[in-house]
Specification:
Blueprint (H helix, E strand, L loop, with lengths): L6 E5 L3 E5 L3 H13 L6 E3 L3 E3 L3 E8 L20 E7 L2 H9 L9 E6 L5 E6 L13 E4 L17 E6 L5 E6 L3 H6 L2 H6 L11 H11 L1 H17 L10
Antiparallel strand pairs: 1-2, 3-4, 5-6, 7-8, 9-10, 10-11
Length: 243
């Protein structure tokens, strides 16, 4: 856990926001973690609890004293960074974590955050996953495709998102996907304007913001994946345009 590092989070009331934790708060939570005996409360993505087979073997805050013993990849982290280490007793359990794509730790807890206007919100920080755009919106979002032989959906025209009502799957229109060149050079306001719904009701600014922020996460990783899905799904469809 790195002091003052900005982390993107999502809250149902306020949408996307950036959370940062100061050095003194990290030290407080590190001490509380050990005082409350939480070392054994390990799980995968805050869902599947691991009861045994893994033990905590180190926990410390980086300082000038211990920095010299750190692996090279960690030596540039700032003082006050909380480092924690677990040792696996079973290679099978380790492989299970690796197969889940686990790359780090997330601290569970109930916190009060305050926005720039002084409004306070209680949140339960448990790594709200944003694997799908539909998780953030009151409607579902799809990237369809198919061949001209009737194998799968037979899309046509430019690459686009299909919006559908949750549960009923009623069509709510479509939004054309921005290409990467225009996306990168556009301002935040210009990106919002890209999410005009064709043949459906307009989106609210909050919904547009959710789409923009999700697509640009991790250097536009999700937008790149949407392009990839569209191109692969429509590689044999001569009625569509690759993006």
């Amino acid at each position: 856990m790195i002091p003052n590092k900005k982390m993107l989070r999502y809250h149902d009331e306020i949408g996307f926001y950036e959370l940062s934790i100061p050095e003194d708060a990290i030290e407080f939570y590190r001490d509380k973690f050990h005082k409350d005996g939480k070392e054994g409360n390990l799980n995968i993505n805050h869902l599947e609890k691991i009861n045994d087979g893994v033990q905590i073997t180190d926990s410390f805050l980086i300082s000038d004293v211990n920095r010299v013993s750190l692996p090279q990849s960690f030596k540039d982290l700032p003082d006050g960074t909380w480092m924690i280490e677990y040792t696996f007793e079973s290679i099978e359990l380790l492989r299970k974590f690796e197969e889940e794509g686990i790359t780090g730790f997330s601290v569970e807890g109930r916190f009060v955050i305050e926005d720039k206007n002084g409004n306070k919100y209680t949140i339960y920080e448990n790594f709200k996953r944003m694997n799908k755009l539909s998780d953030l919106l009151p409607f579902d979002v799809f990237v369809f495709g198919g061949s001209t032989d009737g194998a799968g959906r037979n899309e046509h025209g430019e690459a686009h998102f299909e919006l559908k009502e949750k549960n009923t799957r009623k069509s709510l229109g479509k939004i054309f996907m921005p290409n990467m060149e225009n996306w990168i050079k556009s301002s935040s306001d210009e990106k919002l304007e890209m999410f005009t719904v064709n043949n459906g009701p307009s989106l609210s600014k909050k919904e547009k913001t959710a789409m923009v922020r999700w697509l640009e996460l991790n250097e536009n990783e999700n937008l790149k994946n949407c392009h990839k899905v569209w191109n692969e799904s429509n590689q044999y469809n001569n009625r569509t345009i690759q993006i």
